[in-house]
């Protein structure tokens, strides 16, 4: 049985090319940075978690919630096979039980804040808004898109960002947790407009401070699907 099942909906990504040296301290053992056209990326991601079940059991008052995370992209060579995955610098939710489970069992880096989510689906365009409340201010990621999602270029940046089906987290200087994230290929909405007002330094540290004033290199929004997160495996020497 899968460890966690859910639906991930309306995933919005703001992708920033970044100096690989900034990510080296976060790199789990046995993995290496994954590049697209010679560039290393971090992504600010907002999405909706829905119909959440742990080991097939619904968690009371934790069935539906928003998440905002900052992640980057790695790969791990398992025998002759390269596995492409993600590493999370930080994940933010408004549900303490979800944060406790992820931090305790998967060695992730969840924290809990007051959050905001809104969507408006219309014939002309969709609107998605994700936010974190901090010190009387809202940090916001807002995207307007085309009304219908469609297939994307299998060799483009959207494919690179979304087609990482493994998660990795550092357990120690020599050990890494690995887990599989299963879902079909998503469809992509065309981006019409966006607004990002986000204090990257406050949430993620000084190394990411310049992202607060930079335009992202790309924006994307995916429709999402049912997903499952499988049990973890320890990679060690």
Topology, pairings included?
Blueprint (H helix, E strand, L loop, with lengths): L3 E14 L2 H4 L8 E2 L7 E14 L2 E2 L6 E14 L2 E13 L2 H11 L3 E3 L2 E7 L4 E9 L2 E9 L11 H6 L3 E5 L5 E7 L5 E2 L1 E7 L2 H5 L13 E12 L3 E3 L2
Parallel strand pairs: 6-7, 6-11
Antiparallel strand pairs: 1-3, 1-15, 2-5, 3-4, 3-5, 5-6, 8-9, 9-10, 10-14, 11-12, 12-15, 12-16, 13-15
What can you tell me about this protein's structure?
With 237 residues, this protein is mostly beta strands. The chain is 11% helix and 52% strand. It starts with a strand and ends with a strand. The mean pLDDT is 93.
Quote the beta fraction: over 45%
Judged by helices, strands and strand pairing, the structural class is mainly beta
Instruction: Classify the helix fraction into a percent range.
Output: 10-25%
Largest sheet: number of strands, sense, barrel closure: 7 strands, mixed, barrel
Q: How many individual β-strands?
A: 16
Number of helices: 4
Termini gap: 28 Å
- Physical arrangement of strands within the biggest beta sheet: 1-3-5-6-11-12-15
Which segments are poorly predicted (pLDDT under 50) over 5 or more consecutive residues?
A: none
Overall average residue pLDDT: 93
Global outline: globular
Q: Helix-strand pattern, N to C?
A: EHEEEEEHEEEEHEEEEHEE
Radius of gyration, in Å, reads 17 Å
């Amino acid at each position: 049985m899968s460890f966690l099942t859910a639906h991930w909906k309306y995933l919005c990504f703001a992708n920033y090319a970044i100096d690989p040296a900034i990510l080296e301290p976060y790199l789990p053992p046995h993995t290496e940075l994954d590049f697209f056209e010679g560039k290393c990326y971090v992504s600010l991601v907002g999405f909706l978690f829905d119909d959440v079940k742990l080991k097939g059991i619904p968690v009371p008052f934790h069935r539906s919630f928003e998440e905002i995370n900052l992640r980057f992209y790695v790969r791990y060579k398992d025998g002759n096979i390269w596995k492409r995955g993600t590493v999370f610098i930080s994940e933010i939710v408004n549900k303490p039980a979800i944060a406790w489970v992820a931090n305790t069992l998967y060695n992730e880096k969840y924290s809990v804040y007051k959050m905001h989510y809104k969507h408006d689906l219309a014939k002309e365009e969709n609107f998605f808004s994700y936010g974190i409340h901090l010190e009387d201010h809202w940090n916001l990621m807002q995207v307007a898109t085309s009304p219908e999602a469609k297939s994307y270029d299998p060799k483009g940046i959207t494919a690179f960002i979304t087609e990482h089906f493994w998660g990795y987290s550092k357990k120690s200087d020599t050990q890494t947790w690995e887990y599989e994230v299963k879902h079909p290929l998503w469809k992509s909405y065309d981006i019409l407009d966006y607004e990002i007002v986000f204090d990257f330094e406050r949430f993620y540290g000084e190394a990411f401070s310049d992202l607060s004033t930079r335009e992202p290199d790309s924006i994307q929004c995916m429709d999402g699907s049912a997903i499952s997160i499988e049990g973890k495996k320890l990679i060690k020497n």
